[in-house]
Amino acid sequence: MRRVVQNGTVIDPVNGLEANLDLLTEEGVIRELGQPGGFASVEAQRIDASGCVVVPGLIDMHVHLREPGYEYKETVLTGTQAAVAGGFTAVACMANTNPVNDNGAVTRFIVEQARSVGLARVFPIGALSKGLHGEELAEIGEMIEAGAVAISDDGRPVMDANLMRRALEYCSMFDVPISVHEEDLHLSSGGSMNEGPTSVRLGIRGVPSVAEDVMVARDIALARLTGGRVHIAHISTRRAVDSVRQAKAEGLAVTTEVAPHHFTLTEEAVEGYNTNAKMSPPLRLADDVAAMKEGLRDGTIDAIATDHAPHHRDEKEVEFDQAAHGVTGLETALSLTLRLVQDGVLSLSEAVQKLTMNPARILGLPYGTLSVGRPADLTLFDTQASWQVKPLASRSRSQNTPFAGWELTGKVRLTMVDGRIVYDDREQEGQPA
Amino acid sequence: MTFSQRHFLGIEGLSRDELLFVLNTAESFREISEREVKKVPTLRGKTIINLFYESSTRTRSSFEIAAKRLSADAINISASTSSVNKGETLMDTARNLCAMRPAALVLRHPASGAPHLLARLNQCPVINAGDGTHEHPTQALLDVMTIREHLGDIHGKTVAIVGDILHSRVARSNILALTTLGAQVRLIGPPTLLPPEFSRWGAERHTDLRAGLAGVDAIMMLRLQRERQTRNFFPSLDEYARRFCLTVEALREAKPNVIILHPGPMNRGVEIDSRVADGPYSVILEQVTNGVAVRMAVLYLLTTQERLATRDQSVANGQAVGQEGSDVQAEPSVWDEHTLPKRAVGQ
User: Fold this and answer.
1) CB contact under 8 A, A203 and B200
2) Is A272 part of the contact surface with chain B (CB cutoff 8 Å)?
3) What CATH number belongs to B16-136+291-313?
4) pLDDT tens digit string along B271-323?
5) How many CB pairs under 8 A join A and B?
6) Where are the domains of chain B?
7) Domain B137-289 belongs to what topology?
8) Which residues are within 8 A (CB) of A244 and not within 5 positions of it... i.e. 6 or more apart?
9) Residues of chain A contacting residue B12, judged by C-beta atoms under 8 Å apart
10) Which of A75, B119, B240, B334, by CA, is between 20 and 30 Å from A368?
11) Do B137-289 and B16-136+291-313 have the same topology in CATH?
């Protein structure tokens, strides 16, 4: 089947493209890009992208799909429904499922689930340690053969520095990054929000920034020692961004990502004991938010990733210190990123790069570009349309967003994976083909 | 003036006028506890539920006595004997208790913000009787009431708060109340228990007990939780006591007419020497007496506001409101027995 996406503005950072172009897909592959109207004679289904930007399908390198084991929070189906509604055509899901994804069988199960659902592409991230216990290496090679694209104990830091060293050395033979949740558990000491003026006022035990800073510094030192690839997950502090900037200047294989909530909100969102503003790492101070924007602007921060962490209402409607960590993010990430474009932090093309090309490169995926011959994974969005965040309208099985009620700008109109329309919100057209 | 808060969750957010209004209300209630028959019918027919998730002697009995002296029916529920043991969540417990139509829910809970969670249910007024390391507003009120009684106007007075400031809900509520009323607050303790953020609240920080006590009008000692030692906030109780125990010698630094407060329960010989605790400057038992008056005031103000708000609904439901009608114009004179409707007296 052929489709022509016409009258839109195509942005493809890999090819340095930002122009009004039409795009022809055939048999699930990008066949050709041409001047507007250039495919007028081609027999194809026409998708009108007037007023829209056409970008490579977005890639979220950090989500929690909760399957297997926590299907009451999210499943591969509901998670990828939320993904494609948010413009994501590929997601990488963390290993803290039940059973933990620490062996090839669980990895294969997730890959199979995603295949049968057939919405966004799902790339499992395998556990670094067996059972996420931080003691023995998980069966890394087996998971990679089964489709894992990175290794991580996300949700938990690797407190044992020697285990981290061995993991970096071992993974170098597969050329996959190790994504690290940076938190010194002795320093965070059971805290449930940022340690700062708000935690002192609310009487909540705080997680100091330094709990992240020291672990980032440690893992950069281990990257230097081993030559291994360290990817700092959900970076949140100014000092951590500074450390990554220095590591990159030194030429180390260190990359990082930031979650939209960390470049949008401060610890004050916790006010009133709002458990939907509780996540790990916690929301920090205005100065840290500014550092996230600086890091995005100067390229220190490679990618924007949601850390989409769905939790059931029962796990959030409890005392603050007992509430689960995490917020949903797949459906709000693009709009929150576009705020950075509106504020002049990033150009639209740079913003797209951090949601497509960069995560694809870090994970070694052949996506995140509109190059001819590549799979037709693409997203159409209207940069001007505004919408209100309504948690109950979310495709995710959970509603734990700190952005409830926010008016956001930028609406996904259509998402395509392998040339198939997996999400369609165009006003004039009907249901997905 | 009226008191417009639906819930009583903390000192934070209360204006100077509101604080003074509650304090004045409490002071006019104090006399009831001095009577031979310590009971007025003000809250007759109302139920107050004390829901305590932490052990407490003073606060719980104080709320219970306050409710009973106002003729309310007081029910005490403690976590150890309730469905909490069966895994019921706080919200579900609260929903069920609210379904029994209490006039107010008094909550003591180890988690900061727990009363705020119940307040969001918004089914009945919630009174914070101490939440985690956040606030203990009625304690601060009774402390301020006691200081006022001895020293007059709080404005311009210097009050030292000594001990584990970091984990103290009593300290938080008192810093807010005292600074709102114009007092100077000094916080004294080891740096590990004295977060720098409190400077933003206008409080001075001292790590030397004697220097911190120089010239103060009142000293508020905090209870030191023994378990803090195991988390390395200080090396030992002995070493803590050597530096921060309020002794007769340390007391000499303060003003000659200084008063000493302690929210209890005391660790004698750790944060306070018995000669000081039981000495002439101690007002610790007066605090307890004032606590009843403060809680009577808070129960009164919250549950009568509630009545004002729901009266129309009661009429619609065909409930008898005539009996309550005459004390709806509730102003501070209402608890004076003589102004109450005749038929309410002696029933």
Assistant:
1) no
2) yes
3) 3.40.50.1370
4) 999 999 999 999 999 999 999 999 999 999 999 864 444 444 443 443 433 33
5) 55
6) 16-136+291-313, 137-289
7) Rossmann fold (3.40.50)
8) A216, A220, A232, A235, A254, A256, A295, A300, A301
9) 201
10) A75
11) yes
